[in-house]
Amino acid sequence: MFDFTQIVEPLLEWYDKGRRVLPWREEPTPYRVWISEIMLQQTRVEAVKPYFERFMMALPNTKALAEVEEESLLKLWEGLGYYNRARNLQKAAIQIEEQHNGCIPSDYDTLLTLSGIGRYTAGAIASIAYGEKVPAVDGNVLRVIARVSADDGDILTETVKRSVEQSLLAVMPEKRAGDFNQALMELGAMVCIPNGAPKCEVCPWYHFCEARMQDKIDSLPKKTPKKARTIEKKTILVIRDENKAALRKRPSKGLLAGLYEFPSMEGHRSSEDVIAYLKDLGLQPLRIQKLPDAKHIFTHKEWHMTGYIVRVDELAKTEEKVHDFLFIETKETEEQYPIPSAFVAYTKYLNIKIGNDKFVTE
Questions:
Q1: Residue 37 falls in the annotated catalytic set
Q2: Of 108, 138, 320, 350, which residue is least crowded by CB atoms under 10 Å?
């Protein structure tokens, strides 16, 4: 049986000496911790930093988040992906305003009643913002614990996750619960990394890591292989006249719900197919140019895209409709309409940038 008491002191010493300076870490209010933890799901720290700062400026508290228009919220989130995270943030903010007088709960079980908050996020908020002694177990933590203890249980199972939570709760220092949780996450992000060889030589657990001593680092952690993603082929159409471009809004439910996209056709289509399709819609193509292929990977599927830029005579006036297309000034597209990063390979043909790219200076 692995002795978990030995992990605490060297971990906290290592964390105190070299922890990263992060905006939400230096000012760990409940709101800032919550927003950062939701943003950090499925997203790298460096990518999150500018999003976090902009979000805090635009929506500094739960009241502002509860009241913001959805499209403005999604525009702030543009490029982060998993857009239901943003919608759940707003749902939870409304709950906090209506049920908790605008104060984010400190109690772990109460946090679990808020939209989009699971055990990990509840543990992070309660421990980091409020100092509550509760674990916060994410993929990083599961990996480092599986390796240090040479546990070959499947880390994707609830049984293993609950076991890790209980083991950590038993040794968590009363007065440094938040630091302990953050140190575990930091170790997984910086040393015992998910991809590539871990940096064992700088690990605070080097001398008692069972995976290293048993030569099991490459085989741990164990997790059920993911199902192969389905592949969908699409033809993306960048349709524009001199001033406007065609977009359409995706359905309110399903993948990329409620976001804006370029018109598309199923399958990889020829230029002749595209011209015929547009003429059927009443548009008059003047010229068509093939664009490079692109690929976007979602959790369960991949889009394999080919594309065309099509110049048309003159797009219909904004108040008129062709099919379900919206005809929008390109500058407005960049400023107001949230476009998912799945289309980033094609937005440059409108001379617009989306997500973080809007804020990168040459």
A1: yes
A2: 320
List pLDDT tens digits, range 136-191. Answer: 999 999 999 999 999 999 999 999 999 999 999 999 999 999 999 999 999 999 99
Chain-centre distance of CA 195, in angstroms? 18
Average pLDDT of the chain?
A: 92
* Token representation of residue 342: 């799945």
Nearest-angstrom CA–CA distance, 173 and 9: 9
Are both 213 and 247 inside the same structural domain? no
- As to burial, measured by CB atoms within 10 angstroms (0-12 exposed, 13-18 middle, 19+ buried), residue 90 is buried
Nearest one of 127, 231, 232, 234 to 181, comparing CA atoms? 127
Of 219, 239, 260, which marks where a domain is finished? 219
Helix (H) or strand (E) holding 312: strand 301-312
- The more confident residue out of 237 and 351 is 237
Q: How many helices (H) and strands (E) are present in the chain, helices listed first?
A: 17, 7
DSSP state letters, 290-311: EEEEEEEE-SSEEEEEEEEEEE
Residue closest to 39 by CA, chosen among 108, 75, 112, 89:
89
Residue 124 in domain: yes
Supply the range of the domain harboring residue 278.
Answer: 230-359
CA-CA distance, 36 to 289, in Å (whole number)? 42
Token representation of residue 85: 């995270």
Residues 321 and 204 in one domain: no
> Measured on CA atoms in the order 99, 104, 107, 109, is the torsion positive or negative?
positive
Do 134 and 281 belong together in one domain?
A: no
Which string of b and e fits 5-38 if b means at least 16 CB within 10 Å?
eebbebbbebbeeeeeebebbeebebbbbbbbbb
